[in-house]
Amino acid sequence: MLWSSVLWPAPTHAREAYLSPAALVATQDGRTLFVACATADRVLRFDTATRSVTAIISLPDPPLGLVLSADETRLLVTCGAPASQVCVVDLAQQRVTATYRAGHTAMAPVLSPDGKLLYVCNRFDDDVSIIDLELQRPLRRVKVQREPVAAGLTRDGRFLLVANLLHAGRADADHVASSVSVIDTAAGTVVKELSLPNGSGLLKDLRVSPDGKYAVVSHILARYPLPTTQLDRGWMSTNAKTIIDLERLEIVNTVLLDSVDSGAANPRGVAWSADGATLVVTHAGTHEISVINFPALLDKLAKIPATLEAGQGDPYAASRVQADVPNDLSFLVGLRRRLKLPETDRGPRAVLLVGNLAYVANYFSDTLAVVDVAAEYPKWTSIRLGPETPMSEIRKGEFYFHDAGICFQGWQSCATCHPGDGRVDALNWDLLNDGIGNPKNNKSLLLSHRTPPAMSIGVRETAEMAVRAGIRHILFTVQPEEVAVAMDGYLQALKPVPSPHLVNGGLSPAARRGERVFRKANCHSCHPAGLFTDLQPYAVGTPSAWEKPTDLFDTPTLIELWRTGPYLHDGSAATLREVLTTRNPSDQHGETSGLSPGEIDDLVAYLLSL
Q1: 403 within some domain
Q2: 118-121 long-range CB contacts below 8 Å, 24 or more apart?
Q3: Do 194 and 130 sit in the same domain of this protein?
Q4: What distance in Å separates the CA atoms of residue 440 and residue 365, rounded to the nearest whole number?
Q5: Do the domain assignments include residue 227?
Q6: What CATH number should be reported for the domain holding residue 17?
Q7: For residue 14, is pLDDT > 60?
Q8: Percent of the chain beyond pLDDT 90?
Q9: How high is the pLDDT of residue 544?
Q10: What is the 3-state secondary structure (H, E, C) of 383-412?
């Protein structure tokens, strides 16, 4: 199921005031929907005939995913937390009757065809739990690439496809992209990585077609190698879906969801019609859905050759060969309709189809929007799921941060490059702050307002200045000051997520030893406890060929270091071990050359626990 970005602990205003619907599941007859409300710790039971909420089911933690048992007597809900639970809801009693342990921030539950096994993505543990529902216990955990957030099973249950939010390698490599991990469910191992086109990331949803032949995953296709001089025609960021052939377990192609002069920012939820003829994708940034004729799309893709022979192909076509398709902003012309949601419905995330009716869960407006996707002139109906609550300043800031409506032509939002509540997309970007040709790795915005200056070389004196510069030079618009003020408030309210490397909420024995090594290596002189930065710039021995040897780099906070890789200003270190060893030959960021391998291990364990 769809994942939802949640703070640990979530702000009081969000927990008390807003529902934030983010995941949906329907009974087979389509008469009942279940709506996961991510910031209200509840699931709503919704009657599609009366279009009303008929029950509220309370949960211990934010519900990030839903799946119904085959007999539809139980609802299995992944409740995301550092120590997550899968809650089993007895639908006759409308309450939780059992729980199973899962990992850090569990989401995207998938049930095996026989109903005996449950697969759960543990986002921050970078693994998937396999839970035996008959034995009522977890069987094993399977490691995947990085931040699994969505999954789908092949029809025979042999393979589980897992969408990784981010890539796990260096940012300065030739090919930088997230992947879909393929797990052999019998062996409990990853047998294949389906790497998406260069620049692919922020995978959000993955759905298998009703006939079991294809899967579609929604994602961003960033054009990070280009300097950020413009947005026109997807120069910086495009929005895509990738089609996977499940018989061959290979990628068919990646198709852009944008139009030539209109971005379709932040594709998120994916849904199929029962016959597989219609594919729907939500665009969380531009507040719309794409309704796609999938057989016609397959037919068009099949007619494009892999290579051209002399005189072959249409010389006027944008996609003459298959490799052209991921760059073709006109490919869906005639195959898709973009339907704008009403102004009352903001932040579409999950979507499902019941017959011809699309039900869209809108995170920021606490509504369901319903439309007949087969109608010649589709008309939306907006249904409020709870009392209308005015947005607080922080909630407004969160909305603007995710809203591509404040971006030129809707190509992206702040969350396009800073997903998961202002964190990282793990890419290098050539921003114009310090000239062209010297890309820098994207930084987390957590604590940015408390750790000035901003940017790797400190070109923005404060985070407030960086927010306003980002609106002007990255979103390419001018906005009222209230927009930036609200975003400041949202970013200031962000809280660190407890590290998955903690043991019962505390440091492991290795991390406790590493804390002593941290002082021995003199790391604490530049990263003192508290904010873990002295707010000063230093030459740390890592300038690339594009920078001056005299360049000084801002000392970043080490808080949440476990989720901000790749590391260093150029993303040249995939792991912290590389930061401390191969990328620190002169001891310019920590006196580590004299440490033993065991001490390096312990220091890494400590740093990953912050």
Answers
A1: yes
A2: 118/67, 118/76, 118/86, 119/151, 119/153, 119/160, 119/185, 120/65, 120/78, 120/84, 120/86, 121/3, 121/65, 121/148, 121/149, 121/150, 121/151, 121/162
A3: no
A4: 35
A5: yes
A6: 2.130.10.10
A7: no
A8: 92
A9: 77
A10: EECCCCCCCCHHHHHHHHHHCHHHCHHHCC
Q: Residue 549: its pLDDT value, please?
A: 78
Q: Which residue type, as a one-letter code, is found at position 497?
A: V
What is the helix (H) or strand (E) element at residue 603, kind and residue range?
helix 597-607
Q: Residue 557: is its pLDDT beyond 80?
A: yes
Determine the pLDDT at residue 10: 41
Residue range(s) defining the domain that contains residue 551: 509-607
Same domain, yes or no, for 282 and 200? yes
Decide if 551 is inside a domain. yes
Domain boundary among 467, 493, 519: 493
User: What pLDDT, in 10s, does the model give residues 66-81?
Assistant: 999 999 999 999 999 9
The residue among 70, 105, 139 that closes a domain is: 139
pLDDT in tens, 139-165: 999 999 999 999 999 999 999 999 999
Pairing of strands 537-538, 553-554: antiparallel
User: What CA–CA distance (Å, rounded) separates 8 from 501?
Assistant: 15
- The CATH number of the domain where 458 resides is what? 1.10.760.10
Please give the tally of structural domains in the chain: 4
Using the 8-state DSSP alphabet, how is residue 342 labeled?
P
SS3 for 117-171 is EEEEEEHHHCEEEEEECCCCEEEEEEECCCCEEEEEECCCCCEEEEEECCCCCCC
Confidence of residue 107 (pLDDT cuts 50, 70, 90): very high
92 and 27 part of one domain = yes
Span 283-335, pLDDT tens digits: 999 999 999 999 999 999 999 999 988 667 777 789 999 999 999 999 999 99
| Structure tokens, 142 | 């399977």
For the cut 60, the answer to whether the pLDDT of residue 113 exceeds it is yes
Backbone torsions φ then ψ of 195, nearest 5 degrees:
-80, 130
254 lies in the same domain as 128: no
User: Does one domain contain both 449 and 593?
Assistant: no
Q: How far apart are CA 471 and CA 491, in angstroms?
A: 15
Report the C-alpha gap between 207 and 221 in whole angstroms.
19
